[in-house]
């Protein structure tokens, strides 16, 4: 295992002691008994301080050794869907929620990708939000973050604006937010907001993105997006009847990855998928049984350069997908 140094704001004697214990254990590889003897405390206190440092996210641990089973899944997904890089996080619980393991794997990837001078477009959702504790921030010059869709007022911490702002803060960058709802009442309102209120200029930044961080939403259940009031249960049912299997940035797509002909899509304030596909690096971060159909469709329509998911989702995509290998689809 490789570890990054403890990240702490040292303000008190207890914080200094905790940071010193974490440093000696994780960086200098002292045993707990050695640390206790060196600092004049007992071993039980050392154990407690190490646990507290982990709880506070002051120590981040990354595992660099490859897992052969995961590599096999990664390579097969790459070949089947024509993806440049797939990262599969180990996850054994077929009935569980893989959000955290996907977020952890994505956080490590994102940390290594970010550098000065970048323009990064970000989507929204629980998985993306959960990457934040796993990203090691840095002060980057000329670093800009662009939210790729409007706000979701009732989604609390999963609001697109909240994620974009916190992500920009990690790298001391500028954040560009879409100051409008994700779904408005009519195409006319959408046109007015884009053309008369300056929002078009933000979406034009999408043409200059270096990286887009994206997730997908399923539509089979009444999930967060539909509880906000922007889309009712009637809207959800109507979208399903029209062939929708899920959405990318509120662009609702069918099983083949096509944006469906539905009035909801005409009222969405977000970057369209055609524009998104021109981004050089498209990172899709998502998983879970309720998203399988949406994921299959998004792999076709977004054509991500990198896909981060979990072991169970990867196996399900390969085991039940009707997709043919990329070389056969060409």
TrEMBL record:
Residue ranges of every copy of the Sugar-binding domain listed in the record: 68-318
SUPFAM superfamilies for the chain: NagB/RpiA/CoA transferase-like
Organism superkingdom: Bacteria
Pfam families the UniProt entry points to: Sugar-bind
Swiss-Prot/TrEMBL keywords: DNA-binding, Transcription, Transcription regulation
A single MF term (Gene Ontology): carbohydrate binding
Xref: InterPro entries: NagB/RpiA_transferase-like, SorC_transcr_regulators, Sugar-bd_dom_put
Family: Belongs to the SorC transcriptional regulatory family.
Protein's name in the database: LacI family transcriptional regulator
């Amino acid at each position: 295992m490789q570890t990054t140094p403890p990240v702490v704001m040292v303000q008190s004697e207890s914080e200094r002691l905790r940071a010193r214990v974490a440093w000696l254990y994780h960086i200098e590889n002292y045993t707990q008994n050695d640390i206790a003897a060196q600092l004049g405390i007992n071993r039980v206190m050392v154990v407690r301080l190490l646990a507290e440092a982990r709880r506070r996210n002051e120590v981040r641990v990354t595992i660099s050794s490859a897992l052969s089973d995961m590599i096999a899944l990664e390579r097969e997904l790459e070949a089947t869907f024509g993806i440049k890089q797939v990262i599969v996080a180990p996850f054994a619980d077929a009935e569980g929620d893989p959000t955290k393991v996907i977020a952890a794997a994505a956080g490590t990837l994102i940390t290594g990708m970010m550098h000065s001078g970048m323009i990064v477009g970000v989507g929204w959702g629980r998985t993306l939000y959960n990457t934040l504790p796993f990203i090691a921030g840095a002060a980057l010059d000329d670093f800009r973050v662009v939210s790729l869709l409007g706000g979701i007022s009732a989604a609390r911490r999963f609001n697109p604006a909240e994620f974009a702002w916190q992500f920009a803060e990690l790298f001391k960058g500028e954040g560009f937010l879409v100051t409008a709802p994700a779904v408005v009442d009519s195409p006319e309102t959408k046109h007015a907001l884009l053309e008369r209120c300056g929002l078009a200029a933000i979406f034009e930044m999408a043409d200059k993105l270096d990286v887009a961080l994206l997730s997908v939403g399923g539509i089979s259940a009444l999930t967060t997006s539909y509880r906000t009031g922007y889309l009712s249960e009637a809207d959800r049912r109507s979208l399903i009847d029209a062939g929708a299997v899920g959405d990318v940035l509120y662009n609702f797509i069918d099983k083949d990855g096509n944006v469906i002909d539905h009035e909801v899509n005409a009222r969405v304030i977000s970057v369209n998928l055609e524009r998104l596909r021109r981004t050089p690096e498209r990172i899709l971060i998502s998983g879970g049984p309720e998203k399988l159909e949406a994921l299959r469709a998004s792999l076709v329509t977004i054509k991500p350069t990198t896909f981060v998911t979990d072991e169970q989702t990867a196996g399900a995509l390969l085991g039940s997908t009707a997709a043919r290998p990329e070389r056969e689809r060409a």
